[in-house]
Design a protein that fits this description.
It contains 6 helices and 9 strands. By secondary structure, the protein is an alpha/beta fold. Helix 3 links the parallel strand 3 (53-57) and strand 4 (82-88). It comes from Paracidovorax wautersii. Keywords: Transferase. It holds the Pfam family Mal_decarbox_Al.
Length: 170
């Protein structure tokens, strides 16, 4: 798929708008590309928009528990109807976002220990499944038709420029 200059300009405006909202909301808590752990909820509220496709991924076998907990702590009156794309539903928080109304749609690969709870949320109409993918299909579709607007990635290390190191196996 070829990107037109209008597509690129729209993406650039969208990114600039999100960054401006983050800077305004965080003020002195924003130091370059770094925020304190206490300010993560404020950051997420500023950058997430209703209907956004959001990728939540850990580093290797980690499940991004801090980021999942931060999502659950958001106000559903401000952040809602997110479309989550993630490989594994391993933590209760991965489904808590649907119970709280923060997210409404899900594309994933594996539910593991959350499978029974997932089925109950679907039956209750609290969660709409886009598709259940293989890992490779899901990751490939991130670049085709499931491209996230926001990616929440747990990393082993990061620098002040925003570069992430997710470990030797990833």
């Amino acid at each position: 798929m070829d990107m037109t200059s209008q597509d690129w300009n729209g993406r650039a405006r969208n990114r600039a708008g999100r960054l401006a909202r983050a800077a305004q909301a965080l003020g002195p808590a924003l130091r370059g590309k770094c925020v304190t752990t206490q300010a993560v909820g404020t950051l997420l509220t500023a950058v997430l928009e209703p209907g956004d496709r959001v990728c939540l991924e850990g580093n290797n076998q980690k499940q991004a528990d801090f980021l999942a907990q931060a999502l659950v702590g958001l106000d559903p009156a401000q952040v809602h109807d997110l479309h989550m794309v993630q490989s594994v539903l391993a933590l209760p928080e991965h489904l808590d976002v649907f119970e709280r109304g923060i997210a409404s749609r899900l594309d994933f690969s594996f539910a593991g220990p959350q499978g029974g709870r997932l089925a109950k949320l679907v039956a209750a109409g609290r969660l709409n499944i886009g598709a259940i993918h293989t890992y490779l299909e899901l990751f490939a579709r991130y670049f085709v038709d499931l491209t996230p607007k926001v990616a929440l990635v747990a990393a082993q290390a990061a620098d002040a420029e925003g570069n992430l190191y997710t470990g030797p196996n990833t």
